[in-house]
């Protein structure tokens, strides 16, 4: 009883120092809270309390708290929580996240927390310990917000905050996962794991392609954010691969996410700052502000700033091709008996934004492709249902998940092969899959580990960026957004491909879509902005533009301000 009282007093006192800004309502959304950095102290403090409670609920397992606003402008910031698995915080706790962020007074906050703790049966009041790892990106507001998070964690008795400093979002998720698995989890362990698995993959490159005239240089746009800085560290450990990082944001050069970064490149389809025609034909890549998104691009000499975009769908296709090749080698007739017990169900997860040409390509490869709503948490969850689940959003968020059973099976197979047929194609295929599972981040999509896997696979196949770009031809597409009075009025189903409400809107979309050859169109409420997004695809750019515009007008007519008329 005395412990509870003590806890109540501490929470009340600390919360009183972080009053919420009046008139601001925040929602945890698809990727945590985001707003202007200057108004976020209260939200971050409260998210600190939440993260500590989450750790308590999970028996003291380590939880992560990341301060970042990803690809948003530099004045913004944000905060999100990583669960002990290293994945996103469970969706079950999102209503509590919304409630704790928006509750008006310190007294209300204490009441809310005590009610929640009771309902969730959380050991509260100092009976158990909790641990939260903290990370932040390079935003100027990050340092003071990190202090607010520390105070939120300290307001929960028994909770300890460990400040990991400036990190990419995927580094923090990786650390949380490793720590809970009792593995080495420091930043230097991260670099060691990535560089050594990359080297293993390079050592396994078939002789035929190893001698080809491969361009060993990749030019990387670091979005003037944390990713570039970290890549400069990592590249020191990668002999044989020349990484030239531009837009590092160092020494006050360039502004975070301004005219640079994966989001800019993917949306605008033009060169980011610091890239020009001199780079035509080179292999270029772009990270977003917290380095959990990756896209590649190539500048074609005739087209000014226009680029050939190699988006998340094409990264996914490259990964799928490679994984499938290794599985096919393992499943060859001769190795039956050894490999047929290996559980190896391969699944591809996309969203409605995936270019239709990519889905066709993947299905032609004979792969199972499924769809989820937009947002990493949905794709990740679905991919984890497979022995190997590959997921990507077109915008460059994605990774490959390997199930524990698959990895165990592969490890024991590798031991068998090492004595039965050492150095065989089978053993090499098994080792490639094991190395890929070490290289690619198992907690969350990670631009740095994704970049290294792309580089290793291109080298493995002996492909130039042009070869990769030609894997299939994207269907022309157009994205538009419509400002609406209340975006929650739009309800969708079937992984956001169908509108259920308002009634009648889907019929209108169907009628517009039917006017265009290879037409495909959907609308969905944004999870991050007060808009409804429209996506259209068709066989020509003009048709895709026309379809998107006509549907945008209809959305505006149904629920907008009528400004598009
Ligand atoms: C967030 C999501 C991203 C999604 C985007 C959609 C995470 C880590 N990030 O940035 O996956 O593509 O939102 O934004 O889940 P929208 O709902 O505004 O279109
Ligand atoms: Mg990001």
Automatic annotation (TrEMBL):
Similarity comment: Belongs to the phosphohexose mutase family.
Role, per record: Interconverts GlcNAc-6-P and GlcNAc-1-P.
Keywords tagged on the record: Isomerase, Magnesium, Metal-binding, Phosphoprotein
Name of the protein in question: Phosphoacetylglucosamine mutase
Residues bound to substrate: 393-395, 524-528, 533
Alphabetized Gene3D superfamilies for the sequence: Alpha-D-Glucose-1,6-Bisphosphate, subunit A, domain 3, Alpha-D-phosphohexomutase, C-terminal domain
Single Gene Ontology BP annotation: UDP-N-acetylglucosamine biosynthetic process
Biological source species: Colocasia esculenta
Cofactor note: Binds 1 Mg(2+) ion per subunit.
Record-listed Mg(2+) binding positions: 70, 288, 290, 292
Catalytic activity entry: N-acetyl-alpha-D-glucosamine 1-phosphate = N-acetyl-D-glucosamine 6-phosphate
One function term, GO molecular function aspect: phosphoacetylglucosamine mutase activity
Active site: 70
Entry-linked InterPro entries: A-D-PHexomutase_a/b/a-I (IPR005844), A-D-PHexomutase_a/b/a-I/II/III (IPR016055), A-D-PHexomutase_C (IPR005843), A-D-PHexomutase_C_sf (IPR036900), A-D-PHexomutase_CS (IPR016066), AMG1_II (IPR049023), AMG1_III (IPR049022), PAGM (IPR016657)
């Amino acid at each position: 009883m005395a412990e509870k009282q003590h806890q109540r007093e501490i929470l009340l006192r600390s919360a009183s120092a972080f009053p919420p800004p009046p008139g601001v309502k925040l929602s945890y959304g698809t990727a945590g809270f985001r707003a202007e950095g200057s108004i976020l102290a209260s939200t971050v403090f409260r998210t600190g309390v939440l993260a500590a409670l989450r750790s308590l609920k999970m028996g003291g397992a380590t939880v992560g708290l990341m301060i970042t606003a990803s690809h948003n402008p530099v004045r913004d910031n944000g905060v999100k929580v990583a669960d002990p698995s290293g994945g996103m915080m469970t969706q079950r706790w999102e209503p509590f996240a919304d409630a704790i962020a928006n509750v008006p007074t310190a007294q209300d906050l204490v009441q809310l927390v005590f009610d929640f703790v009771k309902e969730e049966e959380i050991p509260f009041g100092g009976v158990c310990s909790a641990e939260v790892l903290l990370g932040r990106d390079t935003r100027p507001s990050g340092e003071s917000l990190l202090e607010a998070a520390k105070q939120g964690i300290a307001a929960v008795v028994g909770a300890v905050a460990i400040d990991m400093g400036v990190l990419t979002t995927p580094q923090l998720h990786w650390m949380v996962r490793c720590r809970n698995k009792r593995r080495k989890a420091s930043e230097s362990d991260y670099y060691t794991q990535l560089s050594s698995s990359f080297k293993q993959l390079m050592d396994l490159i078939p002789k035929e392609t190893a001698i080809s005239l491969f361009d060993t240089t990749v030019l990387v746009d670091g979005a003037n954010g944390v990713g570039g800085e970290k890549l400069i560290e990592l590249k020191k450990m990668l002999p044989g691969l020349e990484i030239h990082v531009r837009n590092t944001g160092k020494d006050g050069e360039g502004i975070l996410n301004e005219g640079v970064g994966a989001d800019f490149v993917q949306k605008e389809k033009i060169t980011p700052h610091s890239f020009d025609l001199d780079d035509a034909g080179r292999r270029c890549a772009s990270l977003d502000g917290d380095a959990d998104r990756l896209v590649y691009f190539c500048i074609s000499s005739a087209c000014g700033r226009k680029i050939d975009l190699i988006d998340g769908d094409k990264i996914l296709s490259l990964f799928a091709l490679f994984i499938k090749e290794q599985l096919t080698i393992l499943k060859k007739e001769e190795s039956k008996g050894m490999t047929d017990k290996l559980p190896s169900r391969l699944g591809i997860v996309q969203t409605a934004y995936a270019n239709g040409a990519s889905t066709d390509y993947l299905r032609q490869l004979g792969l199972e492709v499924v769809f989820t709503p937009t947002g990493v948490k949905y794709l990740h969850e679905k991919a984890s249902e497979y022995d190997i689940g590959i997921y990507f959003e077109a915008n460059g968020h994605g990774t490959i998940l390997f199930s524990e059973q698959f990895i165990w099976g592969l490890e024991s197979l590798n031991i068998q092969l090492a004595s039965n047929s050492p150095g065989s194609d089978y053993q090499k295929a098994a080792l490639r899959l094991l190395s890929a599972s070490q290289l690619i981040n198992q907690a969350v999509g990670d631009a740095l580990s994704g970049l290294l896997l792309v580089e290793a696979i291109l080298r493995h196949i002996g492909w130039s960026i042009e070869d990769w770009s030609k894997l299939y031809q994207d269907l022309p597409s157009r994205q538009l957004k419509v400002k609406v009075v209340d975006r929650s009025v739009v309800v969708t189903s079937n992984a956001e491909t169908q509108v259920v409400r308002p009634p009648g809107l889907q019929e209108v979309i169907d009628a517009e879509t039917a006017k265009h050859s290879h037409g495909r169109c959907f609308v969905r409420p944004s999870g991050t902005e007060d808009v409804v997004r429209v996506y259209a695809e068709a066989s020509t750019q003009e048709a895709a533009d026309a379809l998107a515009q006509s549907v945008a007008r209809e959305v505006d007519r149904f629920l907008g301000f009528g400004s598009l008329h």
